[in-house]
UniProtKB/TrEMBL annotation:
Secretion signal, residue range per the UniProt entry: none
Transmembrane segments: none
GO MF entries: ATP binding; DNA binding; DNA helicase activity; hydrolase activity, acting on acid anhydrides, in phosphorus-containing anhydrides
Domain named Helicase ATP-binding: residues: 1-230
Protein name as annotated: FANCJ protein
Pfam families linked: DEAD_2 (PF06733)
Biological process annotations from GO: double-strand break repair involved in meiotic recombination; nucleotide-excision repair
One GO CC annotation: nucleus
Coiled-coil segments: none
InterPro entries assigned: DinG/Rad3-like (IPR045028), Helic_SF1/SF2_ATP-bd_DinG/Rad3 (IPR014013), Helicase-like_DEXD_c2 (IPR006554), P-loop_NTPase (IPR027417), RAD3-like_helicase_DEAD (IPR010614)
Keywords for the protein's UniProt record, in alphabetical order: ATP-binding, Hydrolase, Nucleotide-binding
Length: 233
């Protein structure tokens, strides 16, 4: 049958709600807690406090970007195109793949063994990255896999507010518990989620490209309104 234990596409497509659905056998639906913070640093502080409580052993995960969790030497040392480079490796472009991605199950199995032996402790992003380097397994995709069995999921605000990020991370908030730390920052975060900044030089470059498209009759009807927008700005 289709794989359900790893992050391959076959397992994801069979049931997209598996990341957010947790039921006891013949029991009621148990919601997850999604804990949103403004910064990754605040997640570190919260997980440190969680470790000091009686709830330190509950299954958890932290969702974060590749900037914090990618350990591939070529990708992690690059500039701002880490997401694109990661996707290219996963798609096998240029005849290369990511061996760390193929070792994701090692991290999941490690946390499963800890939970089984009741030595599971709340962890931070740095802990997961350190373990990922030791096991040669990708922390980014491991954190996403751990969401399936997690009782509490920590993440920055935009993972909960931005619909595109929610979809890409397969986060379904229906019926779940959402906690927002320092919620007075939500207005700014929501505004940022639907805002985009461009420089004048970028606008000029876009206008030149659109001029070329229109003048060469390349999808002219589609490009003329876009050129008009660039010119008006």
């Amino acid at each position: 049958g289709p794989c359900t234990e790893c992050s391959c596409s076959a397992g994801k497509e069979t049931d997209k709600d598996t990341s957010n659905t947790k039921k006891k056998e013949n029991g009621p639906f148990i919601p997850k807690i999604f804990f949103g913070t403004r910064t990754h640093k605040q997640i570190s502080q919260i997980t440190r406090e969680l470790r000091r409580t009686a709830y330190s052993s509950i299954p958890m995960t932290i969702l974060s970007s590749r900037d914090y969790t990618c350990i591939h030497p070529g990708v992690s040392s690059s500039g701002s195109n880490r997401n694109e480079m990661c996707v290219e490796l996963l798609e096998g472009k240029h005849g290369k793949s990511c061996l760390y991605y193929h070792g994701v199950h090692k991290l999941s199995e490690h946390h499963a063994q800890q939970s089984a032996h009741r030595v599971y402790q709340a962890w931070d992003i740095e802990d997961l990255v350190s373990l990922g380097k030791k096991l040669r397994a990708c922390p980014y995709f491991a954190a996403r896999e751990l969401m399936v069995g997690a009782d509490i999921v920590f993440c920055p605000y935009n993972y909960l507010l931005d619909p595109q990020i929610r979809e890409s991370m397969e986060i379904n908030l229906k019926g779940q518990v959402v906690i927002l730390d320092e919620a007075h920052n939500i207005e700014d975060s929501a505004r940022e989620a639907v805002s985009y900044g461009v420089t004048e030089s970028q606008l000029r470059a876009a206008r030149e490209e659109l001029d070329f498209m229109v003048n060469n009759n390349i999808r002219q009807k589609a490009h003329e309104p876009l050129r008009a927008v660039c010119c008006s700005l």
